[in-house]
């Protein structure tokens, strides 16, 4: 009878220990930080609005380059005419030479200002899209109780490419298991869903 009581006592202790351990683990899980990762370069690559804006920007740059090229060709033709039609040192030669120099200077200034303008436009495109991505990620994380979202790179490291290997070594995220929200965020962005809207089916962390 004593052995039976001891057996029941031991069983009760084990059950209690298991229950306490289970409760402790559950509490730790609830108090833990939910973490997700996102591949920002992939987001930009798959962002429909960003790609369209960059395509329009490329067309604008190419048109400007074509115009600059035409002006450069015209000035080159003026230089050729200067050497073939005017006598060096003559009054007409000096007038034409000054005109060529003036137009060359104006073209250089135009190119410099245009390059600055294009760089600013490109920066604004990247900034606006990144700001939209950040707001969408923040709203998505809040709706899904995600406390921390880290950047990571899903691109495979090329073993025979030194630059790729060095970049891979310096990646902040070494391993992730089903906490990648890249496609979820892209779906929101490309569907035109406002950052404050609730996610549709399938737009929760996998």
Automatic annotation (TrEMBL):
Q: Which GO terms describe its cellular component?
A: cytosol
Q: Does the keyword Lipid metabolism apply?
A: no
Record keywords: Coiled coil, Signal
User: Where in this chain does the entry annotate a coiled-coil region?
Assistant: 47-74
| SUPFAM superfamilies noted in UniProt | OmpH-like
Looking at the keywords, is Signal present? Answer: yes
Query: Which superkingdom?
Result: Bacteria
UniProt-listed InterPro entries = Chaperone_Skp (IPR005632), Skp_dom_sf (IPR024930)
One of the entry's Gene Ontology molecular-function terms is:
unfolded protein binding
- Residues of the signal peptide: 1-26
Quote any Pfam family the record assigns: OmpH
What is any one GO biological process for this UniProt entry? Answer: protein stabilization
Query: What family does this chain come from, according to its entry?
Result: Belongs to the Skp family.
Per its record, how is this protein called by name? Outer membrane protein (OmpH-like)
